[in-house]
Every structure is written in C-alpha cells, then in structure tokens.
Amino acid sequence: MSRVSRFLIYGLVDPRTRLIRYVGKSTSGLRRPRGHRNPSNQKATYSARWVEALRREGLTYTIVVLEEQAFGLSLDIAEQWWIAYGRASGWPLTNLTDGGEGTTGWSMRPETKEKIAATKRGRKLSVEHRAKISNTLKANTDQIAHLARLSRENVGRSPSAETLARRSASLRDRTLTPETRRKISESRRTLFGRGAR
Known about the structure:
This protein is an alpha+beta fold and 197 residues long. It contains 8 helices and 3 strands.
C-alpha cells in the first residue's frame, strides 16, 4: 500500500449505516482522523457526541481518504468542496460549518501535547471490545468497498488548476460574520492553550 500523504481530506464512516458522518482535513496524515477516537481531544461538538455514541456501543468509525495533496496549499477549499458535495449527496454529516476555517498551519504548545499524551498512556481496549470492533468492520462490505475504491483512485492525485479555480469561484463571495470570526479565534486560543491577546 502506498504511503498516505501528510495533507489530506478524510471522511469518518459510521459502521452501523456505512455512511460518511464527518469530513475533515489533516496536515498530519492519518494521525488527525485517528485522533477523533480520543474523547479528551474533543470538545462537546455534534461529531464528538456521535463518536461517543459509537464508543458506548463498542464500535468505532472507519477512515476513508477522500483526497490527498502534495503540499496542502488548497486544503481549506478542498474541505469546503467535500462538505458541500457530501451534503448535496445526502450524507448525514455532523459537520456544523462549511469547512475551511480551523487550524491549518497551527501547532500545539509542548505542554498541551504532553497533557494530551498523559491522558492516553496505559489505556487499553478489552478483548471483547476489540472483537466487537473487528466484527463490525468485517460486516461493512458494500459501502466500505466503494469508499476504499474512491480512496485508491484519489491517492496521490491533486485537483487540477481548473477544479481549484471552480472551487475558489464558488467560495469567493462567502464572507464570515464578525461573530463567526470571533468564535473561530476563541476556539483556536482555547484549543492551543493560548491566552487572549
């Protein structure tokens, strides 16, 4: 299997319905989508509650790579496009925004990383829990196979200049309200342990 790029757009698949429930972007390969499994990393969002509901049933989501990029220069635009495409296709997404904002290019302070790491150390899944996850994933054949095929077709493929131009044009008139900008700014400061400026 070829190495997954650092810069990608991913989907999280619900094993019960075999549908993509969340679309996100990553600048750290599969580490970011895997991170949704740890409740300590998540705020009380719609997607976090969905992941927690799966966990209570002894289940977990499947990750599918929707798009990879060589340098990640258009990740924001690609994320917005995939969220819009998913909504138009009827995916029951837990994304609360249109995408594109968020934390691309930011990095956590070492102290914050250590706090997160400390909460994970020593945690192990029981044999029964692992068996449930394994059995559920083995049962997901149709939709998972289709998503895997999509993922393989998009590995190493970057959008053409025309595709990027179309996406950019569709988003050109989109402006964030001052309230939305304030919320994004506050969430970044909270997430990365930075005080108000």
